[in-house]
Input
Amino acid sequence: MVSIVKRCIGIDLGTTNSCVATIDEGGKPVIVPNALGESTTPSMVSFENSPTDKEAPIHVGLSALRRAISNPLDTLYGVKRLIGRRFDDPEVRALASTLPYEVISAANGDAWVGVQGCRISPPEISALVLSTLRSIAEEHFGDEVQEAIITVPAHFDNAQRKATSDAAAIAGLKVRRLLNEPTAAALGYGAHRGQDQRLAVCDLGGGTFDVSIVNVEDGVIEVISSQGDLFLGGDDVDRAIMEQLLMELREQHRLDLTSTPEALQRLKAAVVDAKHTLSEARRTTIDLIHLGTLSSGKALHYKRTIERAEMNSWIQPVIHRIDAPCLEAAARCGISPKDVDAIVLVGGMTRMPSIQNQIASIFGRAPLKVVNPDEIVAIGAATQCAILDGLIEDTVLLDVTSRAFGFLSENGQYQQVIPRNATIPTREHRIVATNKEDQRELYFEVYEGESDDPGLNRQLGRFLCRDLPEAPAGEVMILVEFTVDVDGILHVSTSELGTGEARELRLVATAGLTRAELASMIPG
Output
């Protein structure tokens, strides 16, 4: 018998690990553990055979993590850093050079991954992780799960948000809301139940860093500013440590591991373990038997003791990248960092004492200790489910756009339409007139960014407004309406000024999955 209950879950779809939460019978959010009893699941996918082989098993989560060393070329991790990104983006190219698996260009220029000769989009990979999280929740309920609130970095752009929604659709989930991770963290922290205050929510996970300034007053949680770095996270800390150790191996043992994926993955796993240990201890030792073969033909037994202070010196340039987003987030809302009342830390990387100290130095006060920084975002997403379902009353959540939106008309004039940090949902419009006699079509390009030079912004698409009435130049005026929904996604529509008649609008150039591609990936 099919359940008529539309169960909603909260999902933190992370770069390194993901987490799912739900609402218990008492209306409280709880973390749903996976089959191994763990609260988080690695955001990893490993293929045993070609992705086109529908009979071959696909490993997701811990089983994929276990295959990373033996099967590095076909084990995908950190795909969240590629979702909604362009292949020719300099940051993507730099990231691709550090990954054991192949990053390739799709036909439209998006960054996809290559596995055993097949091209796979990041939304498809993320969908496999989301499907696993959905199954975890369905096992918990003993019933079907249909809807989810999925968190995304506050600084995710329009393409990344749409790609995340596409991933959910492929996984058979209806996105009830895309919720910014720092905003979810404020909910998970319980800001809606506490005293009136101004918070700085700093979220440093495996792949991204976000900071949001949040006002809490009379049950209203209002995000007033967000800033972030989409390529700053634990992966970058790991890479800095790896680079140091690889340099030592070359200098001391004349051993270059960069062309040996299996050895690199063994070293990376040891580096991650060492990083975690050094969050609690002052020193730790990496001990790897037969890491490589020396020029003498003898196997290298690599043993290296690392002091916390030593590691901190290696990663200092990475840690200092936290400063700029925090300072800009405060400046955007006209305050000093020291004007915040409390700092909430989110994400596994905030367990590192050096991270905590860096953030404390920026804001002039020690951050609050959060018991579960890996879980708090998913808990916040589940809390938002409860708010939308009326299980939690007297709480209002107001979020903001992370980017500005504008358009370039045929006359070459660029106009910003929706400013950054505008409260969402929001709607604005501009008027465009024909500039030729009997002009039946009108083009304009939509961009994301704040620069007056559209070339410095990201183009979201080129639109064609069709079937205009024949008239002298300038007499037909089109109202171009920009709407940013509660998920932070932009929608564009047009109508003829005066008559109000909607005009056919066609997107003729864009990025991301086409609707036909997406439809072919959705089961059933």
Summary: Confidence is low (pLDDT under 50) at residues 1-5. The chain has three domains: 8-232+323-399, 234-317, 405-521. The longest helix spans residues 122-141.
